[in-house]
Amino acid sequence: MKLFVTDKRTKQKINLNLLASTRGELARLIGSQWFTLNGQNYHVNNVFAIADSNDTITGAVVGGVIGLLAGPIGVIAGGLLGGAIGNGRDKTENQNVGYFNSSKA
Fold first, then answer.
1. pTM of the predicted protein model
2. pLDDT tens for residues 27-85?
3. Nearest by Cα to 15 from 54, 45, 50
4. How far apart are CA 3 and CA 45, in angstroms?
C-alpha cells in the first residue's frame, strides 16, 4: 500500500516514502503527529492509504506463462492458480488500506 497526502495548493497526491499500518504508528515513526512537506504543514490524519498493486492479474499472467511448460491444460491451471493467489494478496492489501484509513492518531 502507498501512503499519500493531497497538496493543499495543487490538489495533487504526494506519495510518502514511509510504511505504517496505522496513523498512530506513522506518528511514532516520524516522531510527531505533525510534519512539513513542500512548505506545508500536515497532520497524520491528513495521510491516506491506497492499494499499491493489482496482484490478481499479475499472478494469472505469470501462472499462465509458467503453465506453458505443461501445455494448454498447464496454461489454464497456472493462470487460475496464479490468479487465486494474487487475488488473496489483493484482498489482504485492501483490508490493510481500510484499516489504515479508519485509524486515528
1. 0.69
2. 999 999 999 999 999 999 999 999 886 667 777 777 777 777 777 777 777 777 777 77
3. 50
4. 11
Contact 105, 26 (CB under 8 A): yes
Give the Cα separation of 79 and 25 in Å (integer). 37
CA separation for the pair 65, 50 (Å, rounded): 29
Question: From residue 54, how far is each of 44, 83, 87, 93 by CA, in Å?
Answer: 26, 10, 8, 10
DSSP letter, residue 88: H
Per DSSP, the three-state class of 39 is coil
Q: List, in sequence order, every beta strand (DSSP E) within the chain.
A: 2-6, 13-16, 34-37, 40-43, 48-50
Are the beta carbons of 76 and 67 closer than 8 angstroms?
A: yes
